[in-house]
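For reproducibility, we list the full input for the zinc ion complex.
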Amino acid sequence: MLGAVELLPGLVRAAAVDDDGQLRQLVERSFHADAGGADIEAVIADVAAQCFTFQRVRGIGIACPGLVDVHTGAIVELLDLPQLQGFPLSDVVAKHGRAPAVAEHRARLQAMGDRWFGQGRGRRSFASVTTGETLGVGILYDGQVIAPPGGRSGAHMIVAAEGEMCTCGSLGCWKTVATTAWLRRAATAAGLDGVTGLADLVRRPEPAAAAVLDRYADHLALGLINIQHLFAPGRFIVHGEARAAGQAFRDRIEDRLLAVTSWSAEAERPHLVVADVDEDVSALLGGAGLVLTRLG
Ligand SMILES: [Zn+2]
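The corresponding predicted structure, in tokenized form, follows.
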């Protein structure tokens, strides 16, 4: 049995997962996002102990919503929970879960769930793409997950030389033009009131909605084109918001990818597939995949 822990701003979840990717046990507890570091540590410890005391696991993979030191498992940067800066996440989970623990950035870890339990099974290369309120890409290249220490997950790839200011302080990051926050702003600017997200926009009958949708697809394609040029993963496994946006939306992204990679006869033609794992547990499956990848 494999262990997985997911840390979110305000929630900790732990699961025991079998080798087929089925959840056999799930424990979760919420906490206040403003709580002190010691209080959050107590919640993490309690959830790990509850989940793994009777259901022993051979290792625990942890999905962290920010950067972690992949060697020590300590949190390096977590913008939504700054009080956890430097927090020894892996050590705390390992101690209370009574198994070796490893931690990884959530977006990069999702690729491991796809690799072992999802649309990436049996493949040597693919990219796993998170869309929606958060944006990121995890890459499997020639059998190896590309997750170098100090690397990030793609949201802050710069796609415009004179773009908008990003939360990270740079100008023109991919996330400034390809997340739900951008979509809502663009919809409002186009005279579409109250758009909550992509699924909502797809249902709007106004002509302006189609134009915003096309721009959003093009913006998502920008980052994926860079990934295709560098790693030629061929398969892009789509998670999150774009998963439910309809085939036409995904076709437009795919067309953009094909248009700029037609020169290569050697690379697999880029194509999008919708993730087949339950979104609600994809990070936990990624954690279980991390155990298989890193702990064997
Ligand atoms: Zn940025």
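The chain has a mean pLDDT of 93. The chain has two domains: 2-110+280-295, 122-276. Both points were considered when choosing residues for closer inspection.
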